[in-house]
Every structure is written in structure tokens, then in C-alpha cells.
Amino acid sequence: MAGGGGGSGLSPSRCGASLRGKCAPAPGFPGTAPVCAGLPPALLWAPGFPQKGLVLRVLPCSLFFLRILACSVKKNRYFLLIICILSCSLFLFLCLLARSVKKNNIYIYYISFVQVPLYRAMDNEGKSCIPAELSDILESVSFLDLVGKPSPMESTVLYNPEEQEAYQPLKVFLRVRPFSVAEMENHESQGCVTIEDPQTVILHAPKESAAMKNSERGIGQSVHRFTFSQVFGPETTQSEFFEGSTKEIVRACVNGVNGLVFTYGVTNAGKTFTIQGTSKDLGILPRSLDMIFNHIRGRQYLKMNFKPYLSNDVKKLEDAQVKQEEAIKAALLASLKEEMENVSGAVTNMCHVELTPSNYTSKNQPFDPLEKNFVPLDTHRTNTEQRTQASVWISFCEIYNEYVYDLLSVLSTSKNQKRRVLRICEDQGGNSYIKDLKWINTQSTEEACKILKIGNKNRSFACTRMNEQSSRSHSIFSIRLLKLTDEHQPHVLGVSELSFCDLAGSERCNKTQAFGDRLKEAGNINNSLHILGKCIAALKQNQNPKMKPSYIPFRESKLTRLFQPFFCGKGKACMIVNINQHASTYDETLHVMKFSAIAKQVIQTILPKSLGYFPPKLVGGDGKPIVRFDVNASLDDLPDCTEASTEEEVDITILSHEDLLKTTESLKEKLVAERQSKLLLEVKIRREMAEEMFRQLLETEEAWSNRLEDLKDSYEETLESKFEMYKEAIKKHAYMCAMEQIEDHYVPIEEFIAEQEKVEDRESKILQLERQLDEQSQRLLALGSPNSDILTTENGTELDLANKMMKRANEGLQKQCTEKDELIKSLKLKIQKLNETLLEANEGYRKMAEENSRLKHTIMLKDQEMNNLQNWAKRVLELEETVSSLQKELERKKHFSAEEPKQQKPRRGLLANLKSTVAGTASTPLGKGWGKGEDISTPSRKQVLFAHKTKE
Ligand SMILES: Nc1ncnc2c1ncn2[C@@H]1O[C@H](COP(=O)(O)OP(=O)(O)OP(=O)(O)O)[C@@H](O)[C@H]1O
User: Fold this and answer.
1) Does residue 666 lie within any of the structural domains?
2) What residue ranges carry the coiled-coil annotation (predicted)?
């Protein structure tokens, strides 16, 4: 099965390759749209551009204008700015008129009704950037394309009928299998499936099903409705089913479009029956074969010298190779003798009864019931139609436990012989194909059916509880149709492929009661189907522009790798969902239906033949190309690497004991050689690492010393600034205190002296008065004696007068005394206050002294820090010693390894600096103020402190 297909033209990858170097793909353009998006060169106004199609590249042009705009604003060129704005407006106006048309999956933008091209892109050499392929497309844009088509899809439909099918939802057909008598007896019929109309089916959950139990619990529903492209009921015959489902895809195949039909469903749902049918009631595969052979009747190429090769190519065989092919076919057919007659009879019967109402007998009959429906093989080559011939080749393989096996390999009679595992490879277009898969030339439906039967015999069938003839693998039957010109000068026109994939049942492990190998099979089947489901879900998600694109895990299973091309536009796919109506398998059936509901939403993008694939190449018997169909392709595109496999896989169980021993021996030798080379590599790496470490050590050392220097400087600066700050603070504080005291208790000295003088004056007056008082008292005493009586009598009046005077004087004196006492009291109060102020000043001074001592302590601590720094410096010296010892060690090693001594890097002045720093710090007081840059005339910090102390 290959992803490639017929038709000439460019595959996306080739198209990308041819454009590379000229222009990058346009990021904003839909589809592949490789229309010169890089826009590196100049834009040229070219009214005379002779092309009819106008390429209006909105995004790059907008960017270009924006750039000019930004530039002009930056450089203040307002004239340019105005021109730019005007051009932008014009451009936007033209954009509004712009329409797009899709030609061969490339979106071409043009301006409606305007036949004058706007510009074209030029490369650096002045040549047109538009690749030749695109120019052809542009040439082919008709006026019809340029008018009145709102969407690219519509324009596609209008332009080319072949591209009508470019976008269509994946066709999903449902086939409901009838009950067998045994199943009816087992009460499997509980009305689970109701066909509402030809597109809709309704599932009713039976009582025992998990779906019903869930719905009773309020989770989910018991009734589900599903729509399909077409629903085929139990009464549908094989013929009706073929007509309604597969015929279209077979028709497309004979017209050169690849096709894939795959069946999906639980085990025992009728998948194999649908594809292969029985000998009496043939399925879609033999019917498709019959349709193809009927179609090519009379134009069949009977020789075997053209054979399918890789994914999409054709190999021209030498005579010997042709004989070999014939022998292989004969051997294959010989392995099936007994069924021949049955098959032959059934096919002939089918042809008689169903396809040819009257006289169809054999392949030589000219009757073709499909002829009227069919487009000729090559519609675009009607002149060569008469000479066109077709050769049919078939292959049959299975994917069992994630291994691909060829079902047409003739197994030897030896029971121990293991089947050969085939690899899935990719050609240069990224199309998967199965390497070494046998392709057998067939000349009739009967022959093909025989070969199918042989393949079936080799297929991995195993009896499960649910289906006695259950297929435990995914089988793929492929038909390749080679379209050739006349026999004399053979020429390959195209290759198309139709594949039928009968997927293994999607049942759950517990239902089938699988153990051992069966459990492993079920696990692998479930896994590959799960990945198919993931791919389909991711495809659906990616087609929704509102959702974030997600990774499509095609490569996670063999099945999806082979299906990938069909989901990537290189063919048509159609899904057949088979269900039975059993109540016991309702939940599995519901799961299948939900899966198919997602698949139905996938939109298939079928690339037009002209762009979709590589054209087929004709290669010789040696695999080298003989005829190249793409004249533009470079030699690099030749299939020289047919082994472009992406994964290496060998089933070692097929090897004999001796082979295994030999393999082990050779592997051991390889291991030893590998170890030796690894050892050498390790030595080399270690040496490089040591050098690198040494270099890093030096760098670290330098960095550390720099950092040390910086730290020292910064500490010095900090200390100095702090010291200055404290000094200032102390000064300020002392000044403030003094000022406050002065303000509170200030008495002018003159006032004080005047007051003192007053006090002294008053005291002297008091003394004088006291003396007078004493004198007066003595006189009074003298008067009081006997003599005094005489005096009294004699001088009575005089005495009275004197007494009165004395009394008055006494009173005056007492008054003066009280005044003086009060004055003395107030003066004493003042003195007391002054004493208090003095005490407070003393207290302030004491505090300042304390602050001073604290500062001294801080300075002491900083000194200690400086000492620590000195210790750091010592440590660096030690490191230096270590480094030098390491250096010596390295030199010794270098000498030992007899390598060229490398010149040692001159050590930067780090260590020298450190040494000098340490020496400097040891000989001079630390700190910037006391350090190397200090002026000798300025006093050192210690001197300042000492002076301060002495002041204290
Ligand atoms: N439409 C039908 N009409 C009559 N019989 C049918 C129909 N579909 C299936 N059967 C019968 O049902 C049985 C199971 O069918 P079949 O083997 O095709 O199932 P299956 O899905 O391929 O199972 P498995 O996945 O296990 O291979 C067969 O005996 C087949 O003849």
C-alpha cells in the first residue's frame, strides 16, 4: 500500500524543493501557497507585466509599507511619510477590491476586473521570483476566475471539475449485520438497533448494558442517535452494499485516484464478511476486482515486465526477472488447488448473475457493465486513450502484534520456520510503503480471488469466545493499477492503488476472556485502533480553525503509518462501520459508533493530481531510473536511497541457533571495538576536561582576587564614611547641647556683677546699721542705770524723743533686713539653678564620652574585619600555591604524554596584586585613609583617635 498516486505534477515536497532558495512559503497563506512570501528583493512597478494573473500579496506588502513608514518617522522625513500614507491608503483600497482564487491548491490574489498587474516580486538578480510552475498556473487563470467568486472553494469548483472533490467529509457507511438463528435463540435480539432513515440509526441500551446502568445513575443517556453517509440494514445484500458504498471509490481508482476502504467494528460484526464475503456471496473486494478487470478488458497489459516499485514507482523487469515473477506466481497458485474450482465457480456465477444479466462468460467478453458509468482512464489524454493499457498487481499483508507479515510468501513445509517481518519505509515524498512486499500480477478476478484465499490461509486467525473465525490481525489487500502506453514503446502514465483493510475486532479484553497470546493480541489490536482513533480525533481538531492544532500521531502504529497518506490528501478514504445488534456487545457497539461519529466529521483534503504526488518513475531492473517524467526535477530527486526506512526492526525469533551464535559473536567483537574507541574517546575527553578545568581555575582565581580587591575597597570606603559620619554627629550633638544650655540659663555677666555689687553695698549698709544699733543700745543701757534716773528726771522729754527716733530707726532697719533676706534668697535660688545646669552639662558630657567609647569599639571591630581580609589574602596565597602545584602536575602529565607543551597562559596580575595588597596592608595601617594612596601629611586615623582620647 502506498500513498503515491497517478497524475503528473508536483508533490508538495517537490514543489517546496523547487521553490527553495527563491522564496519561502507564505505564512499567512492558506494551503501550501508557496507564492514568493519571503519578498526579499525589490518591488517593481510593472504595468507592462505580461501575465494575466495578478499576484497581490497582502501580508508582505503591508510589512514593506510599515517598514518604510517606520523608517520615515524615525528620520523625520515627513514628505516621505505623507507619500507612504497615501500609498498605504491606495494599497488598502486595492486590497478591499482584491479577491482570491485557488489554482492547484495555491491561492492567487488578484484585483477584480482589473487587468493591469500591480507589481511582481524580483529576486536579487532581477529575475522574477515566481517559479515556473506558478507562472504556468498564473497563465492559466482565466477571466472567469477573476470575477465574482467569493471563496476559494467555490472558485476551485468552477475552474476544474476534477478538483470538486478536493474537500469532502470522510465517507462513513454503517452496515448492520442480521442475527443468526443461534443468536436469536440466545435472546440477543432486544431491539438495540433501530434504523430511522437511510442516514440515521438509533441505539437503545439494553437492560444489562453498562450504558443503561450509567443512564440510571444519571450519567449519560440510554438512547443515542448517529448519522452516517449511508446506513445499510440487515437485509442489504452484498451487491447492494457494494453499489452503495465502494463503487465510487473503485471508479476513482481506475481514474487514477488512490483509495482506501477500511472496516471498523467489534468482533463478529461482519467486517470480513463485508470485505471478502463468502464463496457464494462475494464481498466488496472481489466485486471491486471484478469491476477493475471489467473496466480494463481489452486493454489489459498481459506481460509482467512492468511491476510496482516502492510506493508509487514502476520497475521494468529484465527477462530473467519476469521469469522469476512467473515462477513465484505459479508456486503461489500451486499452493492452492482444492479451492480453485469453488472460487472459479463462484466468481463466474457472480459475474453471470449480478453483473452481467445476459451473456458474460469470461475475460475475453467485451461486455462491461460499468463502462457507461466510467470516465476513460485518462481524461486529459484522450489522444492516447486508444493505446492505453493497464496492468493489475495485488499484494496481501497483515499487521499482527505490530509486525507486518506478507501473506503471499510461500511458507516452507518446515513447521519451525518463522515468518519474515517486513519493514515499513518511506520514499522521498514521505509516502509509506512496505519494503519487500510481494506484488503478484493478476489477469483476472478469479486469479486474484485465489490469491486472496491463499493469503487468508496464512492469516492469523484464532478462535475467540465471540467469533470462531476471528481475525486477530489487521489485513490489507492492495490492488495496484499501472497505466501504460502501447506495448512497443512502453511508457508509464500513472499508478493508482486501491487498498482494503479488514481491521481486527475492537472488542475489550474482558469480554473475550482473553489470556496469554490472545490477551497480547487484544492489547496490540486495541492499541493500534486507539491510535487510529487519536489520529482521527486530531485530524478533526486540526480542521477546526478555532482550536489549537495538535500533533497527529500517525507514526505511533504501523496501521496509522500506512493510512497516513490517505488522510493527508494523497487518496480517498472510506470507512465501513460494521455492527451487530447483540444486546451482549451493546457497550462495545456504542463505543464503535462514537468513534465513527468523530470520523464522520473529518474533512478529507484530496490533493489534485497535479500537485498531490510524485509522478511515477520508471526504474530498471537494478532500481535505477530509466524514464523521468518530471523534466524539472533535479538529479537529487532520483530514488537512490530506497532504504529510506525510519526504523530498524528484525524479528530475531526467525533466526536459527547457529545464526544467533554468529550474530552474538559478531556483536561481541563490535562491542569490544566499540569499547576501545570509547576508552580512547574518554581519555581524550578527560584531557580536554582537565585543561578546561585548569583554565576555569585560573579564571576563578582571577575573579576571586578581583572580588577581594573590590571588597577591600568597598569596606574601606564604608568605614571611612561611617567614621566621618559619627564624628560629625558627635560634634553636632555637643554643639546642640551647649546651645540648649546656654539658651536656658544664660545671664549676662554685667548684670551679674551689678547685682553682686548691689548685694555687697547692701551688706555694708546692714553692717553699718548694726553698728549704729549697737551704739544706741549701749547708750540706752547707760541711761537705764541710777544715774540714769537723774538723767530721766532731768531730761525726761529728751529721752522720749530719743526713744521714738530709735524705734523708727529700728523699724526701718528691720524692713531693710527683710528686703535683703529676700534678695539673698533669690540669689541663692539662682546659684542653685546654675549648679543644676552644671550637673546637666556634666551628664551630657558623660553621654558623649560613652558614645565616643562606643565608636571606638566599632572602629576596633572594623579593624578586626580588616584583619579577616588579610587572612583572606593569605588564603589566596595558599590557593596560588595549590594552583602552581596543579600546574606543575599538569606539566608533568603533559611531559609524560609527550605532547607538545603548550605555552602557559601568563597569569594575570591577580596573585601579584594580592601579594602586594597583603604586603601593603601589613606594612601600612588598613583602610583607604591609612593605605597606599594616603597623603603622608594627613594624620592617620589612629592619630586622630589618639588625639581624641587625649582630649577626653
Ligand atoms: N450481512 C451479513 N449477512 C449474513 N451473515 C453475516 C453478515 N455479516 C456477518 N455475517 C456472519 O457473521 C459471522 C461473523 O462475521 P465476520 O467473521 O465477518 O465478523 P468480523 O467482524 O470480521 O469478526 P472478526 O473481527 O472477529 O474477524 C460470519 O459467520 C458471517 O458469515
Assistant:
1) no
2) 810-889
